[in-house]
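User: quick one, fold this
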Amino acid sequence: MFAIVEIGGSQFRVEEKETIEVDKMDAEPGAKVTLDRVVLLANSEKDAKIGQPYVEGASVEAKVVEHTLGEKIRVYKFTAKKRYRKTQGHRQQHTQLEIVGIKG
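Assistant:
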């Protein structure tokens, strides 16, 4: 059984006992989170419930594993012929979720 869940504006295909990395959520490590924005719920590729926009009564239970930082990116700005140069780094914050169960 698998489901497609909407988390923070992105959609993820999830199965039980799978770990996914999403944008940072306000939850402590070890806490259980209920994801109720289920877009699709399926037992196999041919048997699926499609929501409009979400499947009623379906939810996904997940456990917060840890909060991590993503890969560092460098942002470099410059203006030609003006001696303007600026370098800035950024690391996006992520939350790792372990899928405990799919209900629906």
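User: anything notable?
Assistant: The beta strands are 2-7, 10-15, 19-23, 32-35, 38-42, 48-50, 59-69, 73-79, 84-90, 93-103.
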